[in-house]
Amino acid sequence: MTDLSTRITTAMRLYAAKKFDLARAEYEAALAIDPNYTIALHGVAACHFQMGRWDESIAAGEKVLAIDPMDADAQGHISRCWMRKGDVPRAEQEAAKEKMIRWKLQLKEQKASGENKA
Prior knowledge:
118 residues; mainly alpha; Serine Threonine Protein Phosphatase 5, Tetratricopeptide repeat; 6 helices; 81% helix; 0% strand
């Protein structure tokens, strides 16, 4: 098992044990190996979310989107953070972006499979 996968496996186990700060540290250690590893960034975002650190969680989600602008899960995560912060209009704005991404991905998938659904 590579050091990267060891870090991720350890982080996931710590997260499952609700040891969010330790899990976050493991995800960040994975990011030191590969800063563009979006699975680790999602993990960092989730840990911050569980600890109520909305701004840090949003920042991690935004890093995912900087790497993969079509990551609907990251966009949805950002929306949920804004909701937890109590900013419903911003949460709705971010949720609309998530819906747009999912719609585009669905159209792309349909095009690739030869479907012509309206």
